[in-house]
Design goal:
The complex is a heterodimer. By secondary structure, chain A is mostly beta strands. Helices cover about 0% and strands about 55% of the residues of chain A. In chain A, the strands form 2 sheets. In chain A, strands 2, 4, 5, 9, 10 and 11 form a 6-stranded mixed sheet that branches. By secondary structure, chain B is mainly β. Helix content of chain B is about 0%, strand content about 50%. In chain B, strands 2, 4, 5, 6, 9, 10 and 11 form a 7-stranded mixed sheet that branches. Chain B has a 4-stranded antiparallel sheet with strand order 1-3-8-7, with no helix packed on it. In chain B, a hairpin with a 6-residue loop joins strand 4 and strand 5. Chain B starts with a strand and ends with a strand. The chains are: A mainly beta, B mainly beta. At the A-B interface, strand 5 and strand 10 of A face strand 5 and strand 9 of B.
């Protein structure tokens, strides 16, 4: 089955700096890669996702890149703000076929 | 976006009792729902896949007789934790997909505390 590794487990950045979180996956058949933001005690919120037919996707300060050959994908947050502080999870699946498999999460702290 | 409603949001129960958690898709039909468990400071771990009208598929290591899943309709799946023990205390969360878009929609989650 799919295995998703996520690094780093914790990340502290100064407000305004960029943050990068990386994930690798094992199943070459996976074709859907979402990123979630989760605040304490709340449900995960989708912040951006990418399908395997594209290599990069951007939404304002957030971008995701995908390297299918290397089987890794990354989340990039630019101009970080204190409200970006949360736990971020990457996930992978074969859309419509398998459930999401999550990485272990990254606790991002943005220091004002 | 689609809405998945989960209840209760939190519950405290005595050891040995059973607790039922409901997950409803409010504005779409979900033939498949997923149940996850999240321990503090850990990731979401898939427990089982709930299929409408058929038996759930459990992940390895999840006791199907302890975590009963019923998906009786296209909009409702329930998870019953039977004979709960303190080690079952966790955050349980369901998700469903519309089948139209790639996004998975999560319920609010249920914080279960067994005392």
């Amino acid at each position: 089955g799919e295995n998703v590794e996520q690094h780093p487990s914790t990340l502290s950045v100064q407000e305004g700096d960029s943050a990068v979180i990386k994930c690798t996956y094992s199943d070459s058949a996976s074709n859907y890669f979402p990123w979630y933001k989760q605040e304490l005690g709340k449900r995960p919120q989708l912040i951006i996702d990418i399908r395997s037919n594209v290599g990069e996707k951007k939404d304002q300060r957030i971008a995701v890149t995908l390297n299918k050959t290397a089987k890794h994908f990354s989340l990039h947050i630019t101009e970080t703000q204190p409200e970006d502080s949360a736990v971020y999870f990457c996930a992978a699946s074969i859309w419509g076929n398998t459930p999401l498999v999550f990485g272990k999460g990254t606790r991002l702290s943005v220091i004002a | 976006g689609a809405v998945v409603s989960q209840h209760p949001s939190w519950v405290i129960c005595k050891s040995g009792t059973s607790v039922k958690i409901e997950c409803r898709s409010l504005d779409f039909q979900a033939t498949t729902m997923f149940w996850y468990r999240q321990f503090p400071k850990q990731s979401l771990m898939l427990m089982a896949t709930s299929n409408e009208g058929s038996k759930a598929t459990y992940e390895q290591g999840v006791e199907k007789d302890k975590f009963l899943i019923n998906h009786a309709s296209l909009t409702l799946s329930t998870l019953t934790v039977t004979s709960a023990h303190p080690e079952d205390s966790s955050f349980y969360i369901c998700s469903a997909e519309t089948g139209v878009t790639t996004e998975a929609f999560f319920g609010q989650g249920t914080r279960l505390t067994v005392v």
